[in-house]
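Changelog note: in this version the structure field was regenerated for every chain. One regenerated record is shown below for reference.
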Amino acid sequence: MLSFILKFILSAVLVYGLSLILPGVTLSGVGGAAILIVVLAILNAIVKPILQILGLPITILTLGLFLLVINVIIVKLADYLMSSFDVHGFLNALLFSLALSVVNAVVDMIID
């Protein structure tokens, strides 16, 4: 339980740091980052599997690169659902999703 809370807090702080570093990404604060982590988790649990099933032929044709587009769609959906999170454009959402994947991998390596 403690590792879950530690991962959540560390992820929220690092996502807020990403919003400060990456251009075109704005976030209201660490509290907004915590809400963003929850929203992204819900979208990844519910919407992402549906998009992966619907996009399976395109994913096969592009040798998996379409999964990056699905990640961008998830980030843009979070942008649409949250007023405290804003991402301008496809490329900024792609950079944010790639950086978020790296951050989550690092957090998982540190905590586990």
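Spot check on this record: The mean pLDDT is 93. Residues 30-54 form the longest helix (25 residues).
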